[in-house]
Batch of 2 targets.
Target 1
Amino acid sequence: MNDPLEERQREMGSRRRYDLSDDTGFNEVPRRYRKFYRVWRGTGDCLAPNEALCPVCKVVIRSKHELRPGDRIYCMACMTRLEVQRGEGGLLVANPIY
Amino acid sequence: MEDPDNRDVREDLHALRPDAFYSRVHSFQHWFDSVQGYLDELEQGHRADIVPEELPENRRERLITVLCNYSVGETAALEASSGLVRIAPNRPVKIFLATQVVDEARHTEVFIQRLQELGVADPEAAIEARASAAVREFKRRLLELVDGADWDAAILAQNVILEAMELSVFEAHAAVADPVTVDVLSRVLKDERRHIGFGENELGRRLKRDAVLRQRLSRLKRELDHLVLQTVQDTLEALGLSRDERPDIGRNYLAAVERLGLQA
C-alpha cells in the first residue's frame, strides 16, 4: 500500500516551483508574509499558475509551487481559508472554506 | 525547540495548520504588524507630502457631503464593534473585534480631519445637517441589533453588509477623488478587507450548518437591502457620478451574500 504522505510529496515534487523573493509592493500583512501576496490590477490582470484571486477581498495569493484543484491556501489580508477549484472555462478559482 | 509552525510559515505560509493560521491572524500582534505597513508616518491619515488639489466649490461641497455620510457609517461601526466585544463567543474573536474598534476609531478621526482640511469649522454640525437619512437609519438598526445581543444578525449587518457597501463605495470614490482623499481612502480600504473577511468567515461557519439561521438572516438582509441601496445611491449622487459612470457597486455585496447562501 502506498503511503499517502509520500504520494503527496512525490506529487508536489512534480510541480513547477516559483521563487517568491521579489517585492510585490503589497503592504497589508506583516512583512515576512508579504511575498505570498500581490495587489490585483483588475480585469485583464493575468494570474500565473502559482496565483489565485481571493474572491472575498480581491487580493492575489501567491504560492511557492504551481496550484492545482484541491490545494488549500490562505488569504492573510482578509483571514480566509480557500480551496483551489476548477471554474468555468477551466480556470482555477479559489473558494472560501468556512 | 523550534516551533514547527514558525518554520512552516517561513517556508510556505499555505502549509500552516488552520488552527495555527486563525490563532495568528486574530491576534493583536498580527494587527499591529499588518497596519505598520501602511499607517506609518502619516499626518491626518494621509502622506504629508501630497500636494492638495484646489477643488472647485461645487466639488468641495459634494466631497463634504460624502465625507459626512462616511462619518456616520464609520461611527456606526465604531459603536457597534465595541458593543460586540462583550457578546463575542470567544476570546480570539473579542481580541479581533478590539482591533476593529481601533480601525473604526481611526477611520472616524481621519474623515473628520479631512472635513476640517476642507474648511469645515464644525464637522459635527455638518454631519447632522448633511448625512443621508438612509445611512442614519442603517446605523440605528445596527445598534438596535447590538443592544439586543443578536450576535449573528449584528455581524451580518456590520461586517458583511456595511463593510461590503463601504468597500465598493470607497473603491468607486477613490477612482475619481482628489489625491489627498485617494490616499486617505486607500488606507481605510486596507482595513476594510480584514473586517469583511472576518464577518464572512464567522457567519459562513454558522450558516453552513444552521438552516433556521440562514432563513432568519435572509429576512434581515431583505429588510436592510433598501437602506444599503439608498445609502449607496445618495453617496454616488453626492459624488456627482451619472448612472452610466457608476460602477457595478453592488457586485461585492451580492457576491458575499451568495457565498453565504443567503436568499435574495
Target 2
Amino acid sequence: MNDTKPLSVVIALAAVLVVFLLVAWIGPIINSNLQLDETALLRFVFVAIGLLAVFVVYWLTRENTAWVIGTREVVYMAIGAALYAVFSYLFNGTVFVVPSVSQVALRPAIAIPMFFGYIFGPVVGFFSGAVGNMFGDALTGFGLSPQWSVGNGLIGMISGMAALYVDKKKSMNAVLSISAALAAIATLMWIMNPTLANMMFFDVDAGIFGDAAISLFAGLSAVVGFVLVVLIRYVFRENIDLAAAVTWAILGNFIGIGFAAISDIWINGFSPTVAIVGEFLPAAGPNMIFAAILVPILIGAYNAVQRQIGR
Amino acid sequence: MLVSWRYRERKSLIQAFDPSAWIIFYACFIVSTLFFWDLRVLSFFLAIALVVIFTSGIKWREMYRAWLFICGFVVFFSLLTFLTGRGGMEVYEQEHTITTLRAPFTLFKWQPTLDITVERALFALSMLVRVFSLASMTILIPYSINPAHYGITFHRLGLPDKIAYAMDLTMRFIPTFGRDFQLTMDAQRARGYEIEKLSGGIISQVRKLAPLIVPVTIHAIAGSEDIIDAMDLRGFGIGRRTWLVQLQYRRRDYVLMGLAALILVGSVIASLFGFGKFWVPESLLHMVGG
C-alpha cells in the first residue's frame, strides 16, 4: 500500500458512515415509515465498515514488509482474483451441477484466496477474495452483494496475516484457540436451534433454497473442519508452512464469513440466531473442510514448483 | 499466452462514450437497480438495458452462447422462485391464490401441490426483469470496452496505479484461466476423470477436485514469471505510471455521468421515502377476489 493516500481513504470511508448516520437520524423525521433494512443502503455501509476494519489492521502494522506491493504482488493479486472468479463461476452450481453431501455443496474455490493470502501476503489475499468474488458474481449474474465481497476479502487478508508474526508456532496456537471458541459458539447455537433453515443450501434436484432445516452434517461441519485443521496442525508439525496456512485460513474463514453473515442481521433483517446458524455455520463450516484439504495440496504443489523455478 | 475477450471496435452506444464514464454509469445502474422490487420501476431499468443491448452492435452469432446462458440462468431462477416462493417472503406477507394445481398421483401419501398466487407470479416476474437487466449490462462490458483501456479506466476512476493495473490484469486473465480450465478438464477426462461422477464422502470428493484446481492454479503461477520479468524490465512501479493511451472526457461523457448520478441519487431518495417496494396491481387482486 505504498502509493495509497491513507488519510483520504479514511476520510472517504468515514464520510460514508457519517452520511449514513445522518440519513438514519434525519430520515425518520421526513418519512416516519423509514426502514433502512428495506433499502440497499446498508450493504454499502457494511462495505465501508469492513474496509475501515481492514485499514485499521493495516495502519497498526504498517511498518511490516508484508504490506509492501511490488511487481510480483500486483501479478499475483490479478491471478488470485481471476482464478477465484473463474472457479466461483464454474462451481456455483449453475455451470457444473457439482454434487453435494448432506446439504454441503462443493465450493472448492474458497481455497484460492486462502492459499494466495498465505503465500503472497495479506494484500494479495484481500484483493483475490474481494475482487475475485465481485467478478465471479458478475460472471454469473448474481447481482451485487458487496458486503460478501468484503467478507471474502477478509478471508484472504487474514490468511496472509501469518506473515505479520515472527514466531509462527506461537501465533498458530493463539489462532487455533480463537477458532475453537468461534466454532464452539456457532455449533452450540445450532444445538439449541436445530430446526432452523439452511439459508445457504441450494438443492438443484429438489429445487430447495433456504427451505430445508440444517442437516446433522452441515450443523457439525464447523467442528468437523476444526478437527481436520487440528489434525493437520499436529500431523504436519514439522512442516510449519502447511500447518500455519491451514490454521490462519480457518480464522480468516470464520471472521470473513462471520462479518458477512452478521451484516445480514441489519441488511436482511435476520435474527442473530438465523444469521449465525442459518447462514454462518453452513457457509463457514464446509469452507473449513475445503481449506483443510485443498490448501495443503496447493502449498505442496507450489513448493515443488518453487524448487523447480528456483525463486 | 493471454486469451482476450471478444472485443472489437463497433458503432455502438457504449463505445460512443469514454470507458471510465461508462463504468461509472454501469456502477450507478447496478446499485440503483438493487433498491427496487417494483415492476414498474424495474421496467425503466430494463428499458435502459434493452436500449444498450440493441445499440451495442454485437451480432447474435458473436455472443449467442452468453445470451443462452444468461436467459437459461434467469429463467431457471425465476421459475424456481415461482415454484417455491423463495425470497418472496421477505417482500410480501400475504398471498392471493389464483389457482391450486394438484398432481394426479401421490408419493408416499404426499400429493405434490402448487399454489399459484398473484404475489409469487409477480415476484418471479420482477426477479426475471431485475436479474436480466443486471446480467445483460454486465455481459456487454467485455465485448465493448477495449482491453487496452482497462488499466487507464480504473486509474481514472481514482484507483492507485498498482491496483488499477491489477484490475486490468484480472480482467485479462479471466478468459485465459477459463480456457486453461477447459483444457485441463479435457486432459483429465481423457485419463478417465469425470467431474459429474465424483463419489465417496465429502473429504474424498473434495480431494478428487484437486486434479482440476491444482494444475490450473500452479500453471498460472508458474506462467506468471514471464509477466513479472517483462514488467520488471520495463521498470514497473519505480515511479509514477504513465499510460500509452490518453483518454479525454467529452461533453457527452459528462452528460452520461450526470445522468448516472441523477439515477443513483433519485433511487436512494425514492427508496428512503418508501417508493419502489414490491408492487401488486390492485386490478389483479380484484380479479382473484382479494
